[in-house]
Amino acid sequence: MELYNRTQIQDVVTLDHAALDAVETGFRALGQGEVVQPPILSMAIEESNGEVDVKTAHIRGNDRFAIKVSPGFFDNPFIGLPSLNGLMIVFSAKTGLVEAVLFDEGYLTDIRTALAGAIAAKHLARSDSRRAAVLGAGVQAELQVAALRLVRDIDTVDVWARDTDRAEAYAARMRERFDDLTVNVHGDIESACREADVIITTTPSKSPLLNASHLPTGVHVTAMGSDSPDKRELDESVMTRADVFVADTRAQSETNGELKAWAGRTPPFEVRELGQVIASGQSPRTTRDQITVCDLTGTGVQDTAIAGFALTRLM
Questions:
Q1: Pfam families attached here (predicted)?
Q2: What is the C-alpha separation between 81 and 103, in angstroms, rounded?
Q3: Where in the sequence of the chain do the CATH 3.40.50.720 domains occur?
Q4: DSSP tally for the chain: helices H, then strands E
Q5: CB atoms within 10 A of CB 162
Q6: Among candidates 266, 175, 158, 272, which has minimal Cα distance to 216?
């Protein structure tokens, strides 16, 4: 059994096309029915304002599978500790023996989450997309744009966040990271989204932020902030306005994602799954003017895919 820390993992796993291909291959296998993926195990630790999520999946034919343990203790910043942490345990799919423990501290989750956004845009956004609107100013607000640039030639980012100082700091970081990127800070969501080709929502909001009036013609929306029962970023009108709605998995979207809006009801639109879209080899976007939406809640197959990819580069 091998042990690897975050620094070792960061040295070999970045936002690149090889990592994107690995995660996309996992989604494709999911769409083809070649993945065993149990529901998320989630446990609240209320007295410490914490929770722990466990995700896993096995891709049939793969030599390895991963189990990810992801704690979130949201008072930690008050005592100088990160709120998110975690590790991935990689097992042999032939013997069940532990092959490696990846003490990534949540790094691989950040990477696979950003890559999922890029994969959604690859299959749903217009090929000539150049301008992205980002709601939020945290880690995923940065990584989603970085990953998006693997599949679309994004040259302008419009950012909105509740905290204007954080939005300004985000803009400064992005300009420093990408010297060819124009970054504009906006005081409201409407102006941030007005000229967007792609809108990315990256917030922990518990009430909808984006509504149909914010959507320009032909835009693609990637919503990745709603990953638990108490979070929502999209108003129902966004989904009913869309011509195409895709979820990473319908079941998770109904419990943790944006389909919670139709709890106990049947949505008045077709729900597709990202893996099935990829496996079909054909984008459901058929015209420039269509509006597409993808709801990403985070899946175990992404964790197995990125953990396996990391281990091939580490060993």
A1: OCD_Mu_crystall (PF02423)
A2: 16
A3: 124-299
A4: 10, 15
A5: 12
A6: 158
Q: 124-299 belongs to which homologous superfamily?
A: NAD(P)-binding Rossmann-like Domain (3.40.50.720)
Q: Are 230 and 207 in contact (CB under 8 A)?
A: no
Distance CA 141, CA 110 (A): 11
pLDDT at 84: 84
Beta pairing class for 220-223 and 198-201: parallel
State the Cα–Cα distance between residues 10 and 7, nearest whole angstrom.
5
**CATH assignment, 2-108+301-314:** 3.30.1780.10
d(CA 98, CA 80): 32
CA dihedral sign of residues 94, 100, 103, 106:
negative
Nearest to 254 by CA among 276, 279, 271: 271
In this prediction the pTM is: 0.96
Residue-wise pLDDT tens digits, 7-36 = 999 999 999 999 999 999 999 999 999 999
- Which whole number is the average pLDDT over 290-314? 97
| pLDDT (average), residues 261-274 | 94
What's the confidence (pLDDT) of residue 82? 85
Per-residue pLDDT band for 264 (boundaries 50, 70, 90) equals confident
In the 8-state DSSP scheme, what is residue 139? H
Distant-in-sequence, close-in-space partners of 23: CB < 8 Å, separation ≥ 6? 112, 115, 116, 119, 302, 305, 306, 309
Q: In this structure, what are the phi and psi dihedrals at residue 215, rounded to the nearest 5 degrees?
A: -95, 115
What is the residue-averaged pLDDT of the chain?
96
Percent helix, strand and coil across the chain, each to the nearest 5? 35, 25, 35
Reading the block at residue 32, the tokens are 């083809």
